[in-house]
Amino acid sequence: MRVAHLSDLHLGYAGAGPGRAADVLRAFENALARIAELAPDLLVIAGDVFDHPEVTASPIATFSRSVRKLRDSLPGVVVAVSAGARDTPLEAGAHGPLMVIGALPGVEVATTTVRRLRLHDGRLGVTLLPHPAVMASRSVDISPHPEAEWNVLVAHAALASGRSHAPAIALAGWDYVALGSNHAYAAVAERVCYCGSLERVGTDPWEEAAIDKGFVTVQLESGEVTFWPVEARAAVSLAPIEATGGGTATVARRLGEALAGVPGGIDGKLLRIPVRGLAADDLAVLDREVLAGVRRRVAELRVEALPGQGASHGVGGKGARRDVPGVRARTARGGVRGRGRVGVRAGR
Fold this sequence. Notes:
By secondary structure, this protein is of the alpha/beta class. It is 22% helix and 27% strand. The protein has six helices and 19 strands. The strands form three sheets. Strands 5, 6, 7, 8, 9, 10, 11 and 19 form an eight-stranded mixed sheet that branches. A hairpin with a 4-residue loop joins strand 5 (115-119) and strand 6. Helix 1 (20-38) packs parallel to helix 2 (57-73) and helix 5 packs parallel to helix 6 (280-297). The longest helix is centred in the first third of the chain and has 19 residues, at 20-38. It is elongated, with a radius of gyration of 22 Å.
């Protein structure tokens, strides 16, 4: 029995670049095409399918079209979704986009309360724990279905740390726990994983520059967990361009040298340029005369004005940070089911 695990898709994310919304949709379509080739028995999505509950029709249409293509290839596959924080409307009783996709054939959604599914003639038990259910109680009383051969828990929640008052979930008996809310892949316990997001969709995508993006599959019989990378937009953050004691011409020259040193160039990438010690008027000139051309070459540009050398919160480092390298699928094996308890808190 093979399960594919996605989370934190953030369909509808726009970012600050004109093509970032398309990046997120394309990553999802590519992931589902690969999942169709891997032919799982179940696809689970651990929350934040959409970037916000007021998304336009395009992200919903992309989700619907991609799931329909998946089910054309795999007619028996079920897509089981636990709502995330971003999927959930703030107004109680409001209908968000998950209500729409929950009406699609083969898609099962938990929006506010825990849902339990029995699939494959009852052999597979799936428990969906959405973000609102985590928020609603200090005690999340869930357990595997005793009559199911395999049990999977799908939760949009972040692991608690330290002396947290977050509710605890017993892990004993679950063949796999699929977590969402963390944008990085992490095997946090045996058969307990965050699969991470498919694109760099955080508030600061450069913090995710070195994070592999993709999804997870797990073989429930053996506990073999495999991370499958999906190509995401490369992100580059330059070391601060020093402007103290020089004007825009000096900054432009230093910037040109830094850009020339970026491995693989800057075209089509997410680019962050910190500039230290340049006056606001000079920064406007730089933007108009130099950065406008850079902006046309990259997918997203963020220019950060930093204070001069005497300030306490400047940014250090030398040279350009390297692009995210390609990665191969990597596999981890687990021989027994998860044990103990894990605290969870509401995801982002």
